[in-house]
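input
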Amino acid sequence: MNTTLISEICSNLHTAQATLALHTAAQKNHALTCVAAAISKNRDEIIAANKIDLDTARKNGMSEALLERLMLDGKRIDGIVASMGVVISQSDPIGEVTGGWNTPTGLSIKQVRVPLGVVAIIYESRPNVTVDAFCLAYKSGNAILLRGSSSALNSNRALVKAIQQGLKDAGEDGVVGALALAEPQKDHSDVDHILKAVGLIDCVLPRGGAKLIQNVVQNAKIPVIETGAGICHLFVDESADLDAAAKIAENAKIQRPGACNAIECILVHENIAAQFLPKLAKAFAGRVEIRADQKAYDIFTAIPLHPADKIAEKDRNFVLAKDSDFGFEFLDLICAVKIVSDVREAISYINSHSTKHSESICTNDRAHARMFQAQVDSACVYVNASTRFTDGGEFGFGAELGISTQKLHARGPMGIKALTTTKFLIDGDGQIR
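output
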């Protein structure tokens, strides 16, 4: 992709967006319903294309956690279609009046919600993002340029083919040109052209690992909505229900270790470390490598070997942590563990090591819970719950563009309204100033 090609693609997207901006909610919902039907109908072709990507990724040594993110099967296709159904059922944000008043001079002012225009998303691995991003963009009246990773190229091609077929099936209600798929180049020159497309692309969203996000944030000449890598933490306070805390840790680390909302570090209050760490060791036994600071490592390695503990020698995967293990996104079945003196130290540690994504505290002390939520500077802050709930679907958005870790425009899981802005409509009666 060169500058001329990106200009041509964006010109076509702008033309399509101008048409889409005039469509009613009913028209957009009809088109999206047809797209969902086309994806379901073409699932065998999509899954076959995904298998090619999976086989290639395995040959290239991709980890199991990342392969799990890449994989599509019948159940996940059903999930994609169901997520589209939620978006279709939501109110159309375009045209929503967010404020209105009359001035002393007789002007009538309304602030209304409008599309951003043409947006681009640069993302890694997960092919479901192809549908999520398109669906949210289309419902909010935006055209979108999709730039997925080479590892998911066949999957993305098959999904975009199904989307375009669905838009054609919708007849006049479908705007086929409202999306385009960029073919990833080995030298990433296509990404550079997207990031420098001033006047052609209104906004770009990176969704993936820290390297991708940093590249976009540091090099983009166009506005960026920054999504964050997920260095998420769980703090187990001294008043916590330790059994419940162990279950939360197990879910937050193991359910989908390659997801950005999986925890990468567990902080434990020193007063209950001796009681909690054996429970954590049982929950992680044989599945998670624990990289512990010196105090935690001494407790882990002192856990006795007898039947009641149900931890065989082969399942005792304890490693003395390095400094670099803290504040690191493993995206794998690896977890750092650190002992802290109190909730204040936990908060300070999290604010200096996290990516401002999602953090959780397990506690029965209400004051500590409120302190944690008030002082931890992250997009989502939980009390007695897994960080795995940081997700557009779980928040009721149906789909998401990503998890924004910045503070301007959007923060946390981004649904339809994240792709809108506002403008002022002013009616007068001949007033001059």
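quick obs: The chain has a mean pLDDT of 93.
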